Amino acid sequence: MTPTHFTFSTAFALGLAGIAFHRTHLLSILLCLEGMMLSLFLALALWTLELTSASLSAAPMFLLAFSACEASAGLALLVATARTHGSDHLKSLNLLKC
Length: 98
Fold this sequence. Notes:
The chain crosses the membrane at residues 6-22, 29-49, 61-82. The protein is mainly alpha-helical and 98 residues long.
């Protein structure tokens, strides 16, 4: 495993561990998801550079666009949750109250 592969897999694993172990605030989960998406974007971009393939050059841009859409939807949910429940603590959220 090369050092770049190790770096990207470690960054992804740290984001996944952050989601698994620090589930107190919705904002911290969103930040961990963004870190995971950033590591995937960088890995995909470097992979297309290594292959020097023109057909795969648009894939990192699509991933970045989907990541931005996911971030905006997550922040909209964060604002809606903070307005209705008063905080972004995940323990205060109850799906049965909807």
